[in-house]
Structures are given as structure tokens and as C-alpha cells.
Amino acid sequence: MIVAERKPFTEIKDSIKDYKKVLVLGCGTCVSVCQAGGEKEVELLATELRMADKMDGREVEIGELTIQRQCDREYIEPITEKMREYDAVLSMACGAGVQFVAEILEDMPVIPAVNTRFIGVTADEGLWLEKCRACGNCLLADYGGICPITMCAKSLVNGPCGGYKDGKCETSPERDCAWVMIYERLAKQGRLDKMRELSALKDYSAQSHPARQVNEAYTKPELSAAKEK
Amino acid sequence: MAGGYEPKIVGFCCHYCAYSAADLAGSMRLEYAPNVRIVKLMCTGKVDTLHLLKAFEDGADAVFVAGCEEGDCHFLEGNLRAKKKVEQAKKLLEEVGIEPERVEMFNMGASDAPLFVAACNEMTERAKNLGPNPLKKEKVKP
Q: Is A101 in the same domain as A142?
């Protein structure tokens, strides 16, 4: 999932200071799971904003709404009219959600309330860890399911380097050496021979941005073109 | 304001300890500040930061959560979870500009009626010293 964290309250407060009617818009998918921008976080932020406005003696109307996903047109379009009742939308979705809502609203400011951090997993209650860099060319099969691009400080595809000590990376004693983890995982799988193989240089060209993905089987059929035939 | 101000305090109390302690305080005829409104919970682990903030938004002058002694939670760690929520509420209140001392966590056993009394008195005293909830004060201003 996409992991995010809420921006500092003062930054959020400052970013909406010019508006009298603000909709705090949550997203019910990734940021909901990582407890940064779901329904509950919307309620918390809206309550905080209302309290802060009262303290400052300002009269601002803060609305609350959470939709299933802000990265899907079908969930945004039904609330377009509702959003237009406000001066600005304070989106608690990841950067993709903020941009898509802004694209649909166009002439209305959509302001981010969270910082998008990474693609990761829920490692424990209240703890999320980065696992994938979305490099566009997955190599996990060769490395026992541990991504050296994400986990290794140098993103080495042929490791380890000489900098590891006691299983830790030279960049930080807190950081596990990805290649020690890969070695141990391959040992458990009885595939240590994989360590002897030399991997080709990684092709980073798949990582050009903005990326685009098409699935022809699901693109909208062009009815007019079919009729011409 | 000082003359007419009687703080309103909301106490989120666990059924297994603080609520029983409050009951016992009554049976023991212990005297304590009458300012506390109790919300009974099956476990303080059910308390969310939002409940604490909403209490302030709705005009409480102080809020406390009273759960079992650490290590004695009927549900093992509900009180420890509540403690974290109280800490978070303190941070959020501070961000907004409200004194974090207005919210507190207490731990006590079911037989600790005097501790419950002390918690009520402590929070009432704090709320009196800090004055009314600043959100309410804004409303009163002409």
C-alpha cells in the first residue's frame, strides 16, 4: 500500500488560512490502513481545525467526507457537486489522490494534508516499512523475495559490498544489510547457488516518469470506429 | 468568571477498576468534587483520541481516563493503549493551543476508592487553576 504521514498541524492550518469553508476529504484505501488519512483521521483533523479556529476567533466551516478511493474517477465524480459547495478541499489522500481530485475539480484549490512516503507493508501495529521502489522491473525472484533495490543502501544487484558488519549496513548500525538477509533467505530455501550467479546490470529505463500502464483488454471500446468497419 | 465557574469534567472509567472504585467511594461515603461526569467503558482500551478531543470540543474543562493498574488490565493491555491515546491527545491539544494538562491518565484498582477520589479532586483542581476551557471562553465573549 501507499504509506503516508500527516503533515504538521501548523502547516495544514497555514495552508487553508485563506478559506472560509473547507472540506476535509479522506481516502478509504491505503492511507486509511496506514492511519494517516482515513475516516478517523479526517474526524480528528477536522475536530482539531475547528478547535484551533475557535481559539483564534475565526469562523470557518469545516466539512468532513471520506470516499473509498481518491485515485478512481468513479468515487470522486459522485461527490463533485458536494465539493463545489466549499472554498477548498483539504485532501488526506496520497499525492495521486490529491492530483486526481484537483484534476476533476480544476478551478478549485485542492490542498494536501499528508506527505506521501513510500510503498510498504504493515510490519506491526502502528509501524510501516518500505518494501518496494516501483522500479518497473521486478527482480524479487532472484533474491529470495527481498528487494535489493529498496533494502540495500547502494541498490546493488550483485552484493554484498565490503561495508557490512555483523549483518548491518555501514550506513547505519540500525539498518540490516539487504544482502545478508538475501543470503539467509536463500539458505532457508536451499537456493544458495543463486548467490554465485552474476546478475546483469539493472535496466532502469522502465522507471521513466510519469509512467503509464495500459491493459488493452479493459480499455474503453471505441464504438464509432467499430461502426465504420 | 471566577465566581460562577464550576468546571465540568468528563471521566472515562473502566468497568473493572475505576468505575467500581467510584462505586466503592460512594459506599464508603467519601467526599469528593462533584464536577465529574463518568462515562463507563468495558475497558479503557476502547478510548480513542477522538473521544477525548470531542469532549473538549463539546465544552469539557478537563478530561481524564481511569483504567486498571499497569499489568492488571482485564484485557491485558487496554490501559496501556489508553495511555498512548491520552499522550496523543495531549500533543493534539497543545497543537491547537489548549493546555495539555487538561487531559490525564490515572491507574487504580477496583478497591482504590481513595485513588478515584484523589483523581476527581486533582482534575477539578487543575481545571479550576487553568480556568474554563478556552474554546468555551471564546463563545462567552461578546
A: no
Side-chain half-sphere exposure of B108, counting CA atoms within 13 A: 28
CA distance B95 to chain A (A): 7
pLDDT digits (tens, 9 = 90+) for A141-194: 999 999 999 999 999 999 999 999 999 999 999 999 999 999 999 999 999 999
Neighbours of A116 (CB within 10 A): 20
- Is A200 in the B-facing interface, judged by CB distances under 8 Å? no
> What domain range includes position A13?
2-118
- Using an 8 Å CB-CB cutoff, list chain B residues near A51: 53, 56-57, 96, 98, 135
Note whether residue A110 is domain-resident: yes
Q: Is the same domain home to A9 and A101? A: yes
**How many domains, in total, are found in chain A?**
2
If you ran DSSP here, which 8-state letter would residue A177 be given?
P
What is d(CA B108, CA B76) in angstroms, rounded to the nearest whole number? 15
The grid coordinates of residue A63 equal 466539512
CB count within 10 Å of CB A205 equals: 8
Judge if A150 and A54 occupy the same domain: no
Taking the CA of residue B46 and the nearest CA in chain A, the distance in Å comes to 14
Chain B residues with CB inside 8 Å of A9's CB? Answer: 92, 95-96
Q: Cell 543470503, residue?
A: A183
A124 located within any domain: no
Residue A98 lies in a domain: yes
In contact, B43 and B16? CB cutoff 8 Å = yes
CATH topology of domain B9-135: Rossmann fold (3.40.50)
Residue A43 shares a structural domain with residue A150 = no
- Asked whether A41 and A147 are in contact (CB, 8 A), the reply is no
Q: Does A5 touch chain B (CB under 8 A)?
A: no
The pLDDT score that the predictor gives to residue A169 is: 96
- Per-residue pLDDT of A194-209, as tens digits, reads 999 999 988 888 888 8
Q: What is the dihedral of CA B121, B118, B65, A124, to 10 degrees?
A: 140
Query: In this complex, is the C-beta atom of A11 within 8 Å of any C-beta atom belonging to chain B?
Result: no
